[in-house]
Design a protein that fits this description.
Length: about 210
């Protein structure tokens, strides 16, 4: 028996029966779709030129459910966040299978990962009520923890950068959405930029 993930009318992607997909992420320019699942695997599908989706790679490094996957905008990196409390960063290139470059241990289960639009920052949201932002993604050394945001009072389920990389938003189980500003309006300010909390809003507010 198979569960199926519907992509569009008359096209489905099979995943194993016992576990549901937890996250999906597109990289449109290369027509790739990544899927993280609760069976501890991440899969990358090639959407082709109008053809049926084809499984290209299966990544099996996680020891717990893969709750989130994301491609960097420059197509060089793929990140996954897992319930095994590990953030994994894979490199892509030359049509070869993604190579696991870095594993970053987090004190709690990871719910969401996202790259900034300029591919310079990587954020993860986790169940210890924190949002962590990493930089130094373009070198051989492990990414460096740049910010830890601990304003939330409950689990943080989601985090995302704005398209211009000037803002970061997070959503928490404490029923608040938080919006942070990065530096003085630049994607990569000179010196030591500050990531400051600008607004909070009750999620239930209209």
């Amino acid at each position: 028996m198979w569960k199926k993930v519907r992509r569009r009318k008359n096209e489905t992607l099979p995943v194993s029966a016992a576990y549901m997909p937890a996250s999906v992420g597109f990289f449109g320019a290369l027509k790739l779709l990544a899927c993280g699942s609760l069976e501890s695997k991440a899969r990358v599908y090639d959407l082709g030129a109008g053809a049926a989706p084809r499984l290209q790679y299966t990544l099996e490094d996680a020891a717990g459910g893969v709750s989130s996957v994301a491609f960097s905008a420059d197509a060089k990196l793929l990140a996954s966040g897992s319930l095994d409390k590990t953030l994994r960063v894979y490199s892509r290139g030359g049509g070869f299978a993604p190579t696991l470059e870095h594993t970053l241990e987090i004190p709690a289960e990871i719910e969401d990962v996202a790259f900034s639009a300029d591919s310079s920052l990587l954020v993860c949201a986790s169940l210890d009520s924190k949002v962590r932002v990493y930089d130094g993604l373009d070198g051989q050394a492990a990414p460096m923890l740049k910010y830890t945001l601990d304003d939330a009072t409950d689990w943080v389920f989601s985090a995302a950068f704005s398209p211009d990389s000037k803002f970061l938003a997070s959503g928490s189980n404490d029923e608040k959405i938080r919006l942070y500003g990065l530096g003085e309006g630049a994607a990569l300010p000179a010196g030591d930029p500050t990531l400051c909390l600008l607004y909070t809003s009750d999620a239930a507010d209209e």
